[in-house]
Design brief:
Layout lengths: L5 E2 L10 E6 L5 E6 L6 E6 L6 E2 L7 E6 L5 E6 L10 E6 L6 E2 L7 E4 L5 E5 L20 E4 L5 E3 L7 E7 L2 E6 L6 E6 L5 E3 L8 E6 L4 E5 L2 E6 L4 E4 L2 E2 L18 E6 L5 E6 L2 E6 L6 E2 L8 E6 L5 E6 L6 E6 L7 E4 L6 E6 L5 E6 L3 E6 L5 E6 L4 H6 L5 E2 L5 E7 L5 E7 L5 E3 L6 E7 L5 E7 L21 E6 L21
Parallel strand pairs: 1-22
Antiparallel strand pairs: 2-3, 3-4, 4-5, 6-7, 7-8, 8-9, 10-11, 11-12, 12-13, 14-15, 15-16, 16-17, 18-19, 19-20, 20-21, 23-24, 24-25, 25-26, 27-28, 28-29, 29-30, 31-32, 32-33, 33-34, 35-36, 36-37, 37-38, 39-40, 40-41
């Protein structure tokens, strides 16, 4: 499309994934990455369209990064010919076809040539999680200017920030960086070695950056913007896209293999299922499956039965922000919407046995409790580890049989979990297991007088799971029972085999 905006013209029309388009310096060709052959490879097509030409044939994936300044070759990254494990290096391949040539940079995930072609700015490392905001770990390495004839290196200033997607315009290198805690466009003057901030967005991060002869182009909040580096001013490009888009058309979908959550009714006659963003009830033996939500444009998640089996609650994005929906189990009537703000997302709902409250874990690792009748909501506790509900789902919210207490596994500063009991009446949370044992998965006895859980007393180094010392840990867990009342006897009385006394 024209950079002033307007109608976009489609260049490819295959079911393949085709990404990383890059214009040649003369604007006549577009290089891009496509997996139409099964493996991502480098292709080039005229800007007028037509049949793309494949340029790389090596079995390893090849990802387009740009062009040489004269437009004679495409720059791409590939893990080809790297051992003993694959890592990315930069290569060029002639636009007219032919063998590839490796740039003599030891590592190279991304890069861009200087205008004279004598130097290249290199981003050495890939990031396994590009959405990890404000990451400051070992994957962050400084962008490096490499002089090709003698391999001299100049590193751009970097304090463990994420500096990515460099482009070279004149004597300035532009790149994306989160050094002000949001991803913005920054510049580096090659002569003065001064770093300056170009954009100042504070909400959504800038996701991609490219450059032409006199403008930068970037994506922010789903829109494409042109940036004049001389003035620092940006303007959004208005784009019109027309097409049939069969991938977005309404269609029948078999969701029987996509079940994400299941819950058995209190009578055991029906299952409550979550599959592909819809909530269903399915008979165990006789009858038909029933779609309770019928909202294919929304994501409905984590359904749970009411204790009497007459109602169902779930979380839904229908209407914008996530909210709790409470509806009839037979699907008749409109469900009631209960706001969960300021929570943005929710997991692991647990309905109290008396039907009055639903507890869940939210995106800020808080345990929140909703009164079903009124919609009033309060925070019971805050977990000590944000990873628990994201990766392990092991807070295990469990109501006592009388609905007066909520038991769960909470992470503490030593990375051990303890079983905590929260009181509805006092709004107080109390840990009840030892601080030096890792206790998880609480379960109440139906008599309300005993609490069962799993615990490890040799977790040790394994508690820091994101830590190399954890690789040597081999923790074991065993079931435990806790007697909840001081006047109840232990279920395991002392036993001793003794010789019987002689008869009198």
């Amino acid at each position: 499309m024209d950079r002033a905006g307007g109608e976009a013209r489609r260049l490819t029309s295959t079911p393949a994934i085709e990404v990383n388009p890059r214009f040649s310096p003369d604007g006549q060709w577009v290089a891009f990455t496509s997996n139409r052959s099964g493996v991502p490879q480098v292709y080039v097509v005229s800007r007028e369209g037509g049949d793309p030409v494949r340029l790389t044939w090596y079995p390893a994936p090849s990802v387009v990064r740009g062009w040489t300044p004269d437009g004679s070759a495409v720059l791409y990254a590939s893990g080809r010919e790297s051992t003993p494990t694959g890592y990315m290096r930069l290569w060029t391949v002639p636009r007219a076809g032919g063998p590839s040539t490796r740039i003599q940079a030891p590592w190279g995930f991304d890069g861009a040539f200087s205008p004279d072609g004598r130097r290249v700015v290199v981003d050495r490392m890939s990031r396994w999680d590009g959405e990890w905001r404000n990451y400051r770990g070992g994957q962050n390495t400084a962008l490096t200017i490499l002089t090709l004839n003698n391999l001299d290196e100049v590193r751009l200033p970097n304090e463990r920030t994420t500096d990515v997607q460099p482009v070279w315009v004149g004597n300035t290198i532009y790149f994306l960086s989160d050094r002000d805690w949001s991803v913005n466009v920054w510049s580096y003057d090659v002569n003065s070695r001064a770093v300056a901030q170009v954009t100042r967005v504070r909400d959504a991060d800038i996701k991609s950056l490219s450059a032409g002869p006199d403008r930068l182009v970037y994506e922010h909040d789903g829109w494409i913007h042109l940036l004049d580096p001389a003035t620092g001013r940006s303007e959004r490009v208005n784009i019109t896209v027309r097409g049939d888009f069969p991938w977005a058309a309404t269609r029948w979908e078999d969701v029987s293999t996509q079940v994400a959550a299941a819950s058995l009714s209190h009578t055991g006659q029906r299952l409550l299922l979550n599959a592909r963003g819809e909530v269903w009830t399915v008979p165990v033996e006789h009858g038909d499956a029933r779609n309770l939500t019928r909202s294919s444009g929304a994501a409905d998640r984590a359904p749970v039965w009411s204790p009497d089996g007459q109602s169902v609650a779930w979380f839904s994005s229908d209407g914008g922000d996530y909210a709790m929906m409470v509806g009839n189990a037979d699907g008749l009537g409109e469900p009631r919407r209960v706001t969960i703000a300021p929570s943005k997302m929710a997991w692991s709902p647990a309905w109290s046995p008396d039907g009055s409250r639903i507890a869940f874990v939210d995106d800020d690792a808080r345990i929140r409790v909703v009164e079903v009748a009124s919609g009033n909501i309060r925070t019971a506790d805050v977990n000590g580890n944000a990873f628990d509900h994201l990766f392990f789902n092991n807070m295990s919210l469990q109501w006592s049989p009388d609905s007066r207490y909520l038991a769960y596994a909470k992470s503490f500063p030593n990375h051990f979990h303890r079983i905590v009991v929260w009181s509805v009446e006092t709004n107080q949370a109390r840990p009840i297991t030892d601080a030096l044992a890792d206790a998880v998965n609480p379960a109440w006895d139906r008599d309300g007088r005993h609490l069962y859980f799993l615990a490890s007393t040799n977790l040790a180094l394994g508690s820091g799971w994101l830590n190399m010392s954890a690789t040597l840990a081999n923790p074991t867990y065993a079931p435990y029972v806790m007697v909840l009342r001081n006047d109840d006897p232990t279920p395991f009385g002392p036993r001793s085999d003794e010789e019987p006394a002689p008869p009198t």
